[in-house]
């Protein structure tokens, strides 16, 4: 790899040490074959993502000693869509449970009433293409079927009626 702005990288609390990177490296997708060689290492990309998570800053506020924000976001988005973050979370959870002397997979789950209440309601959902006309229809039902009442009053300004 070429020397980049990562060569004089500063140390911050979220920076990965070798022990942690040894755990994460097999879980992070390898570079695709062919094409231009990557400018930044996978470890630098993961470091930058952890920086964002830890510091709570915007993508564009990444320090200059980390990879460019656009590159970091692109990898984050790709890994979000292909399930890499879910795989990492599952592997780390299993590892933690085994270290605590428990089964790798949980045997039960708990859902409180707040969680159950927040789930999707049954029934059809989707785009309501006619929702712009609801006020006009409500006005007609109240006996005000005339221009200037409800959403239909815009027709007068466009040369209608």
What does this 3D model show about the protein?
- The chain is an all-alpha fold.
- The chain has a domain at 5-99.
- The protein is 42% helix and 0% strand.
- It has seven helices and no strands.
- The chain has helices spanning 18-24, 42-55, 69-81, 84-99, 113-117, 134-141, 154-157.
- Helix 2 (42-55) crosses helix 3.
- The radius of gyration is 27 Å and the shape is globular.
- The termini are far apart.
- Residues 138-156 have low confidence and may be disordered.
The H/E string reads HHHHHHH
Structural class: mainly alpha
Instruction: Give me the count of strands.
Output: 0
Content of β-strand: under 5%
Number of helices: 7
C-alpha geometry: globular
Output the radius of gyration.
27 Å
Residues in helices, as a percent range? 40-55%
Quick recap:
The chain is 42% helix and 0% strand.
Could you name the key traits of this structure?
7 helices, globular, 161 residues, mainly alpha
Question: What is this structure's SSE topology?
Answer:
Elements: H1 18-24, H2 42-55, H3 69-81, H4 84-99, H5 113-117, H6 134-141, H7 154-157
Helix pairs in contact: 2-3
